[in-house]
Amino acid sequence: MIEDLVKQIETRxxxxxxxxxxxEVISDRERYAEVGRAYSQLEPAxxxxxQWRHAHDDAAGAEELLAEMGEDAEMREELGEARRRIEEIExxxxxxxxxxxxxxxxxxxxxxQGGAGGDEASxxxxxxxxxxxxxxxxxxxxxxxxxxxxGKYTFxxxxxxxxxxxxxxxxxxxxxxxxxxxVQRVPQTESQGRIHTSTATIAVLPEAEDVDVQIDPNDxxxxxxxxxxxxxxxxNTTDSAVRVTHKPSGIVVSMQDEKSQLQNREKALxxxxxxxYERALAEQxxxxxxxxxxQVGTGDRAEKIRTYNYGERRxxxxxxxLTVHNLDQVLEGELDELTEALQSDEKRxxxxxxxxx
Length: 357
Known about the structure:
By secondary structure, this protein is an alpha+beta fold. It is 49% helix and 19% strand. It contains 10 helices and 11 strands. Helix 1 (2-20) packs across helix 3 (29-69), helix 3 packs antiparallel against helix 4 (73-96) and helix 7 crosses helix 8. The longest helix has 41 residues, at 29-69.
């Protein structure tokens, strides 16, 4: 029952509030951060619980007055409004208490590459890379370039230590960017002004720690070679580029961004670990497997999660059928409106799934 849920929220929130002022908790940085994160995550539900109590009091007061005064149109309308508000708040409470994705606190590794459209697709991949880096910076996340070249961009977005003011990790924000992004615009090389349609794919992988994925060194084949730049010319006189092949899965990761072979090897292993972690999740949960297929797809023009139309200055997210007309701002990293809408949609779908279980 919703009343029992409200009581649970109020009790737990009060406990967390008391712990936040407990000197023993405050002196333990790790525990204080954990309590602060739990407090911040529960705070929206606690505010809704208080609103639910207030709406219930309003409804009870209206019922008492109706019983004393007899039928009164204005009081009847007030009672109806209070009851409608109670129903709305109850739905908001259920959404607020939907179980979080266990990966939401993790940092992420993002892989972007051009899809259909030739050189224009590669340019579009670069635009998406800059868009996500700007968005990360706006949200207070740090980014780390891992590998860039030939229309492919691999970089990390790091979750800072969680605090009461910042309870969300990178994955909770950037997981919605995974998929095929379609652009409709006139390329700079187009002399006749014709609009071209191109795509780029984005994969967003929760970054795995050693405790998440154990890699047997015997399962790895590591090859080294000289880094190459545009056109294939060598940009290094030593064999610093690294190609890591995970033999059991067939996953291959290449890195050449650093001049140090060791650094390239470490970056390649980070990406490999993230891919293996995501694969393990997909095998365990069919829903995650479906999400992964929707993220990467084939890069074909018909497969898309979002379309960016330069002529109309609009951005359409096809998953939630939301269109905004602020293309310039979106490309500058102002993605909050889209992210918030996608987060709300995910909560509703999770709530529906929980109701069926």
